[in-house]
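Lecture notes, continued. The same structure-token format from the folding unit now serves as the input rather than the output. Read the line below as a description of shape only.
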């Protein structure tokens, strides 16, 4: 623990009897009410007793320990942490949207349903799909939804033998997990030295038991899968479907569409590609699109346009079920729709090339000091395999921690698993050259120090409240409450 930067916990500021509020008892007319005894705690909760200024300062100071895309450069590879335009927040805060209730009758929320339907149509055009559902709450939730659509398709055809899903070894970790959640067996497909899928290995595993192949393009190491048409033809010839993980859709906006490549089902991470916020496992959205012929399997409910132009909400006869209580994470959908409308088709088509330019600029500015395992141009992101000079014992984790002292969030580390010291960097299109140059300068300084003064890097960070916790102990025996902290203080040095 860094004593100079340590701020007392709000529990440590507690003083018995101190209050920050005074509320009258609840009354209705002349009658007073209190909670029934059976609903009351037998013992008061263990909460700090503090005044209002202390509470405000506690949350204000705590917020300063959080890092977000509004705080600084956030090159988190695979997660596309692009800037969230504030006009999106303004749109979702308008009374007509913020005040809606999901149980309102359809005739009273025609404007909201128009937003929903408009975003569906836009995503169909962007992805080359026939229909979309916006109901899933996140990317992995979208993967699960898409796989359930695939499962419903095969079961509807009485093709019950298709219980396997092929997943490349470079896939996002959620791909095999989502397939397993949907009841499939996962079969791994190998990658070639250039980072792309081994087509021959994939073909050798295709048979009548395969339900789908899950792929990301560009893939997780930032390489464009140029053999998709060949793979798609082989998969379809075997009676299986092609699933597109849309986590890396950003560099392809306006340039290429998954549907045109032969993908049958896809999900899109609105909280990546279309600038809506990440955070806390959400708030996210993972819409799922399908090619013509698969629409009927999409989950209920669906927004349907009547012959007179009005919009209704209906359950589908062949839908595999529901994945959300209502129509998805509506506030996130509004933000994504605002982003698409404000960008327009011509500017959306610029975002991918600019993201790719930024990634290649950083990569080529650092590959003399950091090991580039795939020596070729990348798309929107790239992976280093740690430092070239490993003689000082400085690892990817040390580099990531050292970046914190310079005001940069660390890139994704130790993912993908194809490389031992993976350092995955994605700058996005929203960062200017001054920011990129500042990041490059710091990365080069860290690399030089790793050779000449490795202990300096190994002992970083120096400017954060916590520097070097025991990560294994924190994972196995986490301290989740102040009571836990008090119990182990005898073994802790503050």
């Amino acid at each position: 623990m860094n004593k100079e930067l340590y701020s007392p916990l709000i529990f440590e500021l507690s003083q018995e009897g101190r209050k920050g509020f005074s509320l009258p008892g609840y009354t209705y007319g002349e009658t007073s009410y209190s909670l029934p005894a059976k609903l009351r705690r037998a013992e008061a909760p263990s909460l700090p007793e503090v005044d209002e200024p202390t509470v405000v300062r506690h949350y204000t100071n705590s917020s300063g320990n959080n890092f977000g895309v509004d705080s600084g450069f956030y090159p988190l590879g695979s997660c596309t942490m692009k800037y969230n335009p504030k006009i999106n927040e303004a749109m979702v805060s308008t009374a007509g949207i913020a005040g809606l209730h999901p149980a309102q009758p359809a005739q009273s929320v025609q404007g909201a349903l128009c937003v929903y339907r408009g975003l569906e149509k836009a995503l169909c055009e962007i992805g080359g799909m026939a229909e979309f559902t916006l109901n899933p709450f996140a990317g992995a939730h979208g993967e699960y939804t898409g796989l359930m659509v695939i499962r419903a398709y095969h079961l509807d055809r009485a093709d019950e033998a298709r219980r396997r899903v092929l997943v490349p070894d470079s896939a996002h970790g959620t791909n095999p997990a989502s397939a397993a959640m949907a009841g499939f067996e996962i079969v791994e497909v190998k990658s070639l030295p250039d980072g792309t899928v081994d087509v021959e290995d994939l073909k050798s595993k295709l048979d009548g038991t395969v339900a789908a192949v899950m792929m990301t393009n560009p893939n997780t190491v930032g390489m464009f899968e140029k053999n998709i048409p060949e793979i798609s033809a082989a998969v379809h010839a075997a009676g299986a479907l092609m699933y597109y993980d849309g986590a890396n859709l950003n560099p392809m906006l306006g340039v290429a569409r998954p549907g045109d490549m032969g993908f049958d089902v896809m999900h899109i991470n609105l909280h990546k590609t279309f600038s809506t916020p990440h955070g806390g496992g959400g708030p996210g959205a993972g819409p799922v699109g399908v090619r013509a012929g698969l629409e009927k399997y999409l989950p209920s409910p669906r927004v349907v346009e009547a012959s007179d132009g009005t919009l209704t909400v209906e359950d589908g006869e062949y839908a595999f079920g529901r994945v959300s209580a209502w129509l998805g994470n509506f506030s996130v959908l509004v933000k994504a729709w605002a982003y698409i409308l404000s960008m327009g088709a011509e500017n959306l088509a610029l975002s991918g090339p600019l993201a790719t330019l930024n990634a290649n600029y950083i990569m080529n500015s650092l590959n003399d000091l950091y090991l580039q395992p795939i020596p070729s141009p990348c798309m929107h992101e790239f992976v280093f395999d740690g430092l070239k000079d490993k003689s000082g014992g400085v690892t990817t984790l040390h580099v990531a921690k050292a970046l914190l002292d310079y005001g940069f969030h660390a890139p994704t580390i130790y993912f993908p698993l194809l490389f031992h010291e993976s350092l995955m960097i994605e700058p996005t299109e929203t960062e200017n050259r001054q920011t990129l140059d500042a990041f490059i300068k710091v990365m080069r300084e860290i690399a030089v120090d790793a050779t000449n003064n490795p202990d300096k890097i190994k002992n970083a960070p120096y400017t954060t409240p916590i520097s070097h916790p025991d990560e294994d102990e924190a994972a196995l025996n986490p301290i989740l409450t102040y009571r836990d902290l008090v119990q182990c203080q005898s073994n802790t040095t503050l």
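Point for the exam: The first helix runs from residue 52 to 63.
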